[in-house]
Amino acid sequence: MKRSCQPFAVLAAALMLSGCMGYRLGGGRPENVETVAVAPVVNRTAEPAIELQVGHALRQRLQFDGRLKVANDPETADAVIETTLTDYTLTPIAFRSELRTTPSQYRLRIAGEARLVDRETGEVLSTSSSYGEALFAFQSDLTSSKRDALPMAASELAKFMVDDLVEQW
To answer: What is the CATH number of domain 28-166?
Structure first.
């Protein structure tokens, strides 16, 4: 009885292991792209200076992700990430009184589009249209509260953009 089950066990193990063929840990990346440069972020919103925070978040996310090496000089990179911020929205979502006149909590949302462009050919390798959000409580003044929440929204936007641009299915 033991002898007759052995071929079936070997066949079952071979079939199960064949399902793992081609699997790579850590995901893929665009073909022939090992280094990437981040072009200056273009801000088409009415909110000043948010492009600096988003550009910084993109570089940090690429370094954390590790699939592509970040180049400081676009001339030495295989591809360039070009990003345009298209929307900046600040929405009150909670209020302190029944009259709904004094907001106590806000949602900050940054939306943008990005392209991964081959530096040699100018071909667009991948695109992303994403947004990042952060919730924050109103503190002493709205300007300080927004400034404190901006890195969280920029970081989320960068995460979604890098995943869209780099991941190749």
So the answer is: 3.30.160.150
